[in-house]
């Protein structure tokens, strides 16, 4: 059996029907198909239960001496431990909770802006979400200079193009792990190798990769990383990871009574405790997938996460292969990796257009047929320009996660073919 056949066999064994029963939104949706998951995923019942339990049992401020308040302190500590395991952090103290990834990118950029000296160059890309571009460009008034790492025509960033951009003037390389718009996966371990060889740091936007593959900050050797919990099957929240010593050096705003060390110096004000409890439960949900696929009493929590995310990755490659075939069969222009032989370079997030047909009209027609997808500029104006697309119309994006099914992909294809026939 070749690798392609093995991957298909592994994906076919993925218990998607059982997994779907864990998501109340999917059970209540009727015929509706969720294919806008890049904008936010649904949450399992266990996550909903964790949020409800917080609000009912200990919806109080942490830091008090009474039982309910002590429980909040413990739940936040438990969530730090879980998220640290999810991303393979060196310590739970490196996990900082807050409102969203964008606010954390801005927080780090403001700190780095105060530390610019002879290292005043920042490398940014034209494939990223604007949150990981505009936040750095705002440092121009602080003296920052910028180098652009450009996406190639094949729909991905290549590290060979990064090498000549990095020098002893480079302060930071900021890039995505996976493009939220076109689904391309970046070789971030090589990015870190190149940056660190020049004495620079690496900031990774991991928001879109989080639901699709195994995060490993140690293997990637990055310096900062942000995620959005609501893309990772939790409620709306975000978290920042940074090496402990790196976060300790980073200038941040803090009130005088806040300890000047991570994670406290990074977490200005009160964050949403119930959603942090939900993120804790979301990590445990991913562990459960790994544990159920290959039951073992000897595996650690991290090993179960590794097993679960590996199974998710294999299954999503099958979804990506099916979606790629459907879009090609409909004559779509696919932005990003469109070669089936390079599927390992992408996640099942597809950005496309159908000839001269209006993306907005197609998405509206899809909505009438109970399929949720998205159109527009995808918060990536520089990428739209790179693809010769207007900000007004942009493109169409269909984004899948592991609770989607091959049957849903085929229904999507049937609906798209019918719309094309009707509008052409």
TrEMBL record:
Pfam families: Aminotran_5
Name listed for the protein in its UniProt record: Aminotransferase NifS
Key words, A-Z: Aminotransferase, Pyridoxal phosphate, Transferase
A single MF term (Gene Ontology): transaminase activity
InterPro entries for the chain: Aminotrans_V_dom, Cys_dSase-rel, PyrdxlP-dep_Trfase, PyrdxlP-dep_Trfase_major, PyrdxlP-dep_Trfase_small
Domain Aminotransferase class V: residue ranges: 33-319
UniProt keyword annotation of Transferase present: yes
